[in-house]
Amino acid sequence: MTKVVDMHSHFYPDNAPDMAGEFGGEWPSFRHLEAGKGMITLGGKDYRPVYEACWSPEIRIQEMDQSGVDVQLMCATPLLFAYDKPAQQSERAAQYYNDAALGFCEYEPLRLRALCQVPLQDIDCACREVSRSAKNGHVGVQIGNHVGQKNLDDEGLITFLQHCADEDIAVLVHPWDMMAHERMPNYMLQWLVGMPAETQLSILSLIMSGGFERLPRNLRICFAHGGGSFAFLLGRVDNAWRNRDIVRQDCPLLPSSYTDRFYVDSAVFDQDALSMLVSVMGEDRVMLGSDYPFPLGEQDIGSLVRNTDKLSPISKSKILGDNALGFFKL
What we know:
Blueprint: E1 5-11, H1 19-23, E2 28-32, E3 37-42, E4 45-51, H2 57-67, E5 71-76, H3 87-105, E6 112-116, H4 123-136, E7 140-144, H5 155-166, E8 170-174, H6 189-208, H7 211-214, E9 221-223, H8 230-243, H9 245-248, E10 263-265, H10 271-281, E11 286-287, H11 303-307, H12 313-327
Parallel strand pairs: 1-5, 5-6, 6-7, 7-8, 8-9, 9-10, 10-11
Antiparallel strand pairs: 2-3, 3-4
Helix pairs in contact: 3-4, 4-5
């Protein structure tokens, strides 16, 4: 019987300290609405409605049972990264949210596991916090796909990834702070267009720059949301590499040959898309990820994988749980 592991979900504590009061400036906050409902705010403005699964482990376990999920890995909502703050403030916030995540998991420690966050704008602080968190019980780290204007090929971020490899800490790369937001103010287009593009950008930043050549093969790194638009556009990238020297100047191998260096989750919401993703990445490199408990996440966790007729039973077992058990060493 396959153990079902959802490796991509989020939490948001409803009793976080008042960071704006402590440090000044604009910080995320939260207020309760009617029973079981809440609102994340940013700078005093409503940002996103959420419900109690974000802060209640009891509700989360109940809904995991309803979806047949045995283990769920959770990480902070990316809004909490605080990469634009002074490093010491961001480190303080990361420590709070990381400790809160472990407290959340104490409700069902064999079924709820946590990924930490780090102050990625300061590599020394980030390395210190990821090591502290791993020793305390986090099974990996969630990072944003960029810090300001720095993509993942930035030398400092390569250093952080090297540190994670050295300490055998799994990494989930999650898009955030999407590009061209001023051109996508409506219809959640930042999430529908910008977010997949951001994820593809982060993958290609590591491939095309030779970043993967500078990182050890034991680095365990996964990209959220099926790798964004990467799989669908990989043929275009390979074609450019073959025909333009400026594309391959720092990338010694065909871009598609690097798909054995990273993982993606299954959050693509379409059977044909999932089939293509598995064809591109291989059945060993895709893990169940729901993006729970947000409306853009998979509402019946695992149903896409379970219900498709385009994957073999072996492939389904790997994606539903086996791959994540190995990736996170659960």
